[in-house]
Inverse folding.
C-alpha cells in the first residue's frame, strides 16, 4: 500500500478513485501528474490554479512519503 495522508487519500477518492488502492507510488503519481497538467493551471505563465495547488500537495505527499534520498 502506498503511504499518504488521509487528506491525500480523500483527494484521490474524489478525483482519481481508480488509483486510490494502488500498490506502487508511481501508479498514482503518473496519472496525478497528468491530472495536474490537464486541470491544474490558470495558464502556463500564471501557474497553478487552486486545484493545481491541492493536487501538487498530494503529489508531494505521496512522493516524499514513499521515496527516500
Amino acid at each position: 500500500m502506498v503511504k499518504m495522508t488521509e487528506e491525500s487519500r480523500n483527494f484521490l477518492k474524489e478525483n482519481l478513485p481508480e488509483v486510490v488502492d494502488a500498490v506502487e507510488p508511481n501508479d498514482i503519481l503518473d496519472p496525478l501528474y497528468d491530472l495536474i497538467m490537464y486541470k491544474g493551471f490558470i495558464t502556463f505563465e500564471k501557474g497553478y490554479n487552486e486545484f493545481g495547488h491541492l493536487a501538487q500537495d498530494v503529489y508531494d505527499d505521496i512522493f516524499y512519503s514513499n521515496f527516500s534520498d
Summary: The longest helix spans residues 50-66. Helices lie at 6-15, 26-39, 50-66. The chain is about 60% helix and 5% strand.
